[in-house]
C-alpha cells in the first residue's frame, strides 16, 4: 500500500463525480490528493454532492471538499485549487501520476484531454443514447455556441429559455432516433434534479476509483474494454467486449476481414501521397479525412508531429518537419554535397511505413500507411 499512499493524484472537478471520487480515493488508501475546481457551492448541489452542507453555500467547492475529506480520513492530505483548469501550467499537471476527471463541461473536458493526452469527448457529444444526453448537449455545447439570447446565461426557471433548449434537444434526439425528450425531463436535466443522477455518479466514480487503485497497486488487471452496469432487476456489473464492425479497411495478414470503422480497425488505413509531398500536405489530408483537431503523428522510431504544452521541446521540431518532404530525394544532387544534404533530406517516412495518429476526437489512435504514387 506504500505506493498507493505516496502516489500523487489529481481529481479534476469537485461536483457530483468529484465528491464521490474524493471519498472513494481517500477510503481506498490514497493519501496525497489534489482537487481543482473553479465553482462555488449552490443550494441545488446539496441533493447529491454530499461533502457539502447548507452552511457551505457560496463557498469554494474544492476548498470545502478538501477540508471535509482531510477531517474525516486520518492521514489523507488533500490540497485544494480554487481556479480554472486553464490557469494551471503543463508543469502543474506533470506532477501527478494519476489524473481523474469529474467534469460535466465538454469544453473543459476537451481542454484537459488535449493537455494530458489526445483522447475523445464523452458520449454526450458523439454517441448519445438517452434523451438526457440530448438535453445536456444543448445546455453545455449549443447554448454557448449559438448564444440565442444575446449573452444571457441559461436560466432553468425562464420558460423561454427552457422552450429553446427543449426545441433543440428534440431536434438532436430525432437525429439519433432517441425518444423521450419532453418538458418535464428538460427541466429536470437543467436543474439537476433527476433522481438517478446521484446513483449514477456513485457508480461511475466507484469504477474510476477502482481502476485507479488497480493502476497504482497492480492488484488486478485494469479494464481494457467496456463496463456494463444494469440495475433494472437487481444489480449486475460485468465487462463487455464490444463487437467490431467489419469490411473495408486495409487488412492485416491473418485477418479475414478488416473493420470499416477507423476506430475499430485492426489494420492500417491507406493514404496516397505524391513522392514530393511535404509532411504538411499529409497532415492536411489526415485532418480532412478524419475531421481531426490537433493530431499527433509518430512512427515506431520517431515523432513526426506533436504540438503539446507538455512536451515543448518537440514543438519546434514538429513545425520544422511540416516543410520537409515525406520522401527524401537525393538523386539530382552533386555527390560532393551528399554528406550535407543527407542531413536535410532523410526520409521522414519509408515506403509502406505505418504512422500512428492520435487526436482528441478519436476514441483511440488509428494507424495509417502511406502509399507513394509514381
TrEMBL record:
Gene Ontology BP annotations: protein neddylation; protein sumoylation
Keyword ATP-binding: yes
GO cellular component terms, A-Z: cytoplasm; nucleus
Catalytic reaction equation(s): ATP + [NEDD8 protein] + [E1 NEDD8-activating enzyme]-L-cysteine = AMP + diphosphate + [E1 NEDD8-activating enzyme]-S-[NEDD8 protein]-yl-L-cysteine
Domain E2 binding: 271-373
UniProt keyword annotations, A-Z: ATP-binding, Ligase, Nucleotide-binding, Ubl conjugation pathway
Top-tier EC class: ligase
Domain of life: Eukaryota
Keyword Hydrolase appears in the UniProt entry: no
UniProt-listed SUPFAM superfamilies: Activating enzymes of the ubiquitin-like proteins (SSF69572)
Pathway given in the UniProt record: Protein modification; protein sumoylation; Protein modification; protein neddylation
UniProt GO MF annotations: ATP binding; NEDD8 activating enzyme activity
Active site: 122 (glycyl thioester intermediate)
Enzyme Commission number: 6.2.1.64
Family: Belongs to the ubiquitin-activating E1 family. UBA3 subfamily.
Cited function: Catalytic subunit of the dimeric E1 enzyme, which activates NEDD8.
Name of the protein this chain belongs to: NEDD8-activating enzyme E1 catalytic subunit
